[in-house]
Write a structure and sequence with these properties.
The chain has 368 residues and is α+β, with helices and mostly antiparallel strands. It is built from nine helices and 18 strands. It binds zinc ion (3 copies). Residues 236, 300, 327, 329, 343 line the site of one zinc ion.
């Protein structure tokens, strides 16, 4: 997403506020989404160190010299400090931190960098960047919600292809269908495919099934969970279809799932707690007697990353606030037999839940 310097300037200002409030002297961001969120540059996830060193009065992007040309300069946000092949970048970071006592480190920073830094500065109090970055990143502004909505719409088009038989199923293996879903996500505007789970028949009982060589048969469930990144923001949708007449018992299971997912979405307005979403969906499944088959949390936050804060799970009593974007995806998995999941991305708003996905929620029969 192309943002103005003013947006990054404001984000850095807010990060410094959070640091100040939490008594953190420095923020160290390398691989992952925190860095591009804050200054608009994505580190290459390689063995050479790229790291933003942000303190109250300084911001230096430490970067391999030959990658410096990739950086969009924002002189009023950060400076670039490049290192040549024979220089020691950890030493550079150590010098920038000089007298600082504490630093928050990005979650996905390579362990090798963190361990080398600990050797250079054994007295430095290291903490996780989440405490500074999560409160900011979890609440999406309107441009971010627009980007999530556009990605959701693109995923909806692919879901409709699946539900209407435009992506044929019967007689093909899961991996082929998965490749089709990925290709269609790209055609609909995604820049990258993050995953495309296709789980047929008994495989649908495994929530993160790896699509493989199993050939899809007539008269079984096919669970598809797919998403990618479009303009910097992620999509993630799950729909199930049935390749022929639906057995009565599976219809009943799906009706419970449908009701549970709708209850989760209905509980997704701003004002409650994150765990309320999980409770709303789970209570429907529990009272229908399927409780033991719902084996994961109800949802995860989504944004620049496919899974990020906040998590919709029992025990998360963080307030659900306007701008939180997350999945609502209950599932029922009967091992060795069948399973189903139904997933939408929802944004909490002050006037209730804003469900971004609009693809059909019913279990569609696809005889193709
Ligand atoms: Zn998942
Ligand atoms: Zn999903
Ligand atoms: Zn998901």
């Amino acid at each position: 997403m192309e943002l103005t310097d003013a947006v990054y300037r404001e984000r850095v200002r807010r990060a410094r506020n959070e640091m100040d409030e939490r008594g953190v002297d420095a923020l160290l961001l390398s691989n992952g989404a925190d860095l591009p969120y804050l200054v608009g540059y994505q580190a290459m996830a390689l063995e050479r160190l790229t790291m933003l060193v942000l303190t109250a009065d300084d911001a230096q992007l430490v970067i391999p010299a030959f990658e410096a040309a990739r950086v969009t300069r924002r002189d009023d946000v950060f400076d670039v400090m490049s290192w040549t092949e024979t220089e020691d970048p950890i030493g550079m970071v150590g010098r920038l931190l000089s007298e600082r006592a504490s630093a928050c480190v990005g979650d996905t920073t390579w362990a090798r960098f963190v361990i080398d830094l600990m050797r250079t500065r054994p007295d430095l109090d290291l903490r996780r960047s989440n405490e500074v970055m999560t409160p900011m990143r979890a609440v999406k502004d309107s441009a971010e919600v627009d980007a999530l909505r556009a990605a959701a719409h693109a995923a909806d088009v692919v879901a409709a292809d699946l539900q209407t038989g435009r992506i044929p199923l019967i007689g093909r293996c899961e991996a082929e269908v998965s490749a089709d879903l990925g290709r269609r996500l790209l055609e609909e505007g995604h820049d990258k495919v993050n995953f495309a789970i296709v789980a047929s028949g008994p495989n649908a009982a495994s929530p993160h099934h790896e699509p493989g060589t199993r050939v899809i048969q007539p008269g079984e469930v096919v669970l598809c969970d797919f998403g990618g990144t479009m303009n910097g923001y992620c999509s993630d949708i799950t729909r199930c279809v049935h390749t022929g007449t639906i057995p009565g018992e599976f219809s009943e299971l799906y009706a419970v799932l449908y009701e549970a997912q709708a209850a989760g979405v209905a509980a997704s307005g701003a004002g409650g707690e994150c765990q309320d979403v999980d409770r709303a969906a789970r209570s429907v499944i529990d009272s229908a007697g399927f409780g033991e088959y719902f084996i994961h949390r109800t949802g995860h936050g989504i944004g620049m990353e496919a899974h990020e804060d906040p998590y919709m799970i029992e025990g998360n009593d963080d307030p659900l606030v306007a701008g939180h974007a997350f999945s609502v995806e209950p599932g029922i998995y009967v091992s060795g037999r069948w399973g189903a999941r139904l997933e939408d991305i929802v944004v909490a708003a002050s006037d209730g839940p804003d469900s971004l996905n609009e693809a059909e929620h019913d279990l569609m029969v696809v005889e193709a």
